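This entry is listed as follows:

___
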Amino acid sequence: MSNFNAYDAAQAAQKIMDEIKENYSSLTTLNVVVIGKTGVGKSTLINSVFGENVAEVGLGRPVTQSIRKLEKEGTPLAIYDTPGLELQGDHSAENLLEQVTNLINDGIQSEDVNQAIHCIWYCINTASSRVEPTEMNFLRKLGENTKRCNVPVILVLTQAFSKKKTEEMVTALRKENLPVRQVVPVLAQDYEISEDYPKIKAFGIDKLVELMSELLPDTVRDTFIALQIASIDLKRKRARAAVTAAAGAAALTGASPIPFSDAAILVPTQVSMLAGITAIFGLPIEKSALTSIVSATIGTAGATVLGKTVVSNLIKMIPGAGTIVGAAISGTTAAALTGALGEAYIAILTRVASGDISFADLTSKEGMEELRREFEKQLRISHS
């Protein structure tokens, strides 16, 4: 008897939900220190990268005299925020440098990657006429201290309204040969000068996110890709790697041809793939939406991997797959079906992340038909 009978849509959806939770809980906590004077736009920057008002004013607990730790329950992210780099007093550059250095050293000594500082953003307001010598000295000393422990420092030029002023500041800072990985100008939100002029469109956040994905250690790269909301392309790229791995696993499973009646042997691989992709996109999803997705793709009670109705229409597109009657799923067929399923799911999640559709839309009859069409489209693309 086929093992697939145990995998009706609701059961498969619950399995995906469980694996999403497991994947998310296994992510390493990402720790980012954000430094800059009061008013440079640190909170806007943080929220533009991670969303959901992570940096709401007044939230967070103090961990030093000058640093607050911002966390959200259930999210593997900690932002260490400085309330303002001042030139004197408790928040002076000298005091803050000591506190940040101690914070980094404490993470190293803990030997716990969840406590380690992984990156530092130093923010300077582009609208300011010049960078204070105190800040230059701070950056040099900070760079020296972090270089020894391989913590990258990114110099973020915030509120970059003026293209001319931004270019001048970037040029001037690069001439200083500061020990930072890169200078990244950003405008975190659209900016409206007045009703008489068009808005200045936000820019630069995607470049910051791409740079972060390159600089962060492997242990937290997946965490960052899942949590950031600025680059859907980055999520797609990582998700496609998961699809490739799942298709490879499916191909191995089908190395000895599998009768269609026993196609359920591929379902665990496909379920894990869908869970992994969902975790990468970092989107909250309800079981009802997952049940619809499973019903429209993997199949419902007693169906094979994609349902014989779908397979009978599409199997002829896969070289060497044969016919549905008495046929067996080869490694090539298993990989093609799994790959198309993964690509279809990525396409749907891309639309959800972009705001074109919602997960609720997928629970309707029309939504399920769209899922099936997307799967068929991806299968045709893979063999065109």
Remarks:
- Confidence is low (pLDDT under 50) at residues 1-7, 300-313, 322-326.
- The chain has two domains: 28-227, 231-382.
- Strands lie at 30-36, 61-62, 68-71, 77-81, 119-125, 153-158, 182-185, 258-259, 328-329.
- The chain is about 50% helix and 10% strand.
